[in-house]
Structures are given as structure tokens and as C-alpha cells.
Amino acid sequence: MAVLSTPRSAVQLASKGTPVREHLFRTLLIASLVVAFIFMVALLSYVFVEGWPRLDSRLWENMPSIRNPDIAGAQSAITGTLWVISLTGLFTLPTGIAAAIYLEEYADKTRWYNRVIELNIQNLAGIPSIVYGILGLGIIARTLGLGFSVITASLTLGLLVLPIVIIASREALRAVPPSIREGSLALGATQWQTISRQVLPASIPGIATGSILALSRAIGEAAPLLMLGAVSFIRFNPDGIFASYTVLPIQIFNWISQSREGFHVLAAAAIVVLLVILLLMNSVAIWLRNRYQKRW
């Protein structure tokens, strides 16, 4: 009597070499991560070691000096950075999130102008930052008459990172399961009630992450601010949105351009301060993400 054997399925045959490929792919990913981590540790170690002699209260209590690096500080640059990035977030985040809600929840995808808007947003995210500096110089500073002030820098950096906020917010809204929307609408809620009370809270972790990444890019930009008259030597703190200003990237660029070694140490210490500000911003994003992930 012949014994009938069940043939292997096509899926089993196709997946015969899968473990080898998966192992190779995982090895390549781990190797890439290790290389990136090594470079990051080397860079951070160099900056900390180089700037350690000036990581004291003089750095954030004293004003800059063009003659004596021993008494020079970065108080005006730190204050200007906080002014500029705070106003940038104030202008960008509500506008970007509102635009993402419209495009994802309300816009008719069949309309040609909505498709044009989406295409332009994606293209604007890849434009070099110096182009936004020229735009801010020609329109915001001169045409609108705002001059070389804090608000001009904030609006320009806001335009720079606005496409990133919109794209990240749309992806976060798109990741919310459709069943949440359908269940809310089925219970009699309006579309806005569904978005504001169900969809938006569920998407806050992704929106917060994308927003902080966008602001992290803005806080490190120097090229557009050079076009907007960010002064590298200011011995006073901004006292309003129309005041003159400087920021840490401009101050670091100025110090690293000096010939004396003491200014190079100051530049490294200022980089550490900038990294601390970035770390605090990312900590806020992580806190928001963890808080809302527990709810949802």
C-alpha cells in the first residue's frame, strides 16, 4: 500500500532561506547602530573634554567678550535662543497641527487643490534652510517691516520647520485606528467631537515626537539667521519680540572662528549647553508620549 505524503506548501519552500537572510539583515542593522553609536560617543566625549574647563557659572552668567575668553560668557546667546525657539514653537505647532487635521480629516482627496497643497508641503520639507533665510529677509524683515528682530527669526524658522510638523502630525493622525472614529460617530458624536476627544489625544505621542524633532532642527540652525542679521556679539539680553538678538549656533560659530584657544574651549562649552537644551526638549516629548500611551 502506497503511503501518501503531504507535499510542502509553496510558502514553506519560499521561506526556506529566510532565517539566513533575516540573520544577515539583523547583523547589518546592529553593525550600523554600533558604528553610529561609536561616532556619537566620540563626538560627545570630545566636546565634553574640550569644554569642561569652562562649564561653570561664568558661561551662563557673563556676557560675551571679544578680548578676554576667561571672562566671556554666553548669557545673551542662551537667552536669545530661548526667546527664538519659544516663539517658533508658539507659531509653528498650532498652525502645523491644525493644517494636518484639515488635510487628514476634512480635506477631499479628490480635489486638485488639496493634492497640490500636499505636494508642495512635501517639497518644502526638502528645501535648504538658506532659502528660507532669503525669504525671511525679503518678505518678513523688509516687506513687512519687522526688521532684524526676534520675531523675524522666529517666523522664518517657523516656516522652515512647518512642513515637518505637518507631515509628522498627519502620520500620527493616520496611525489612529479607523474603529475609534467609527465607534465615536456611531454613538452620535460630531466629527469635531470625534477628532478633539478621541483622535487627537490618541495621536499626541506621535505629534509630540515629530514636533520636538522639528524644533530640534530649528534650534540648531545658523544659516538662515545669518541672513536675518543675527549679531554674533551682543552684550544684552532681548527684552521683547522686536529686540536685537543672537543665538547659540551663531555665538558658537563666532567663537570657533577666533584664533585663540580660549575661545575654542568656550565654543565647546556652549555646544554642551545647546545639547542640554535639546535634551530637555526631548524629555518633554518623552513625558508626553508616555503619559498618553498609558491612556490609550
UniProtKB/TrEMBL annotation:
It is found in: Cell membrane. Gene3D superfamilies: MetI-like (1.10.3720.10). Residues 78-284 form the ABC transmembrane type-1 domain. Its main location: membrane. The keyword Transmembrane helix applies. CDD domains: TM_PBP2. It is a multi-pass membrane protein. The chain crosses the membrane at residues 28-49, 82-103, 124-141, 147-168, 240-257, 263-288. Pfam families: BPD_transp_1. Keywords: Cell membrane, Membrane, Transmembrane, Transmembrane helix, Transport. The keyword Cell membrane applies. Belongs to the binding-protein-dependent transport system permease family. CysTW subfamily. NCBIfam families: 3a0107s02c. Part of the binding-protein-dependent transport system for phosphate; probably responsible for the translocation of the substrate across the membrane. PANTHER family: PHOSPHATE TRANSPORT SYSTEM PERMEASE PROTEIN PSTA (PTHR43470:SF5), PHOSPHATE TRANSPORT SYSTEM PERMEASE PROTEIN PSTA-RELATED (PTHR43470). This is Phosphate transport system permease protein PstA. It comes from Nonomuraea indica.
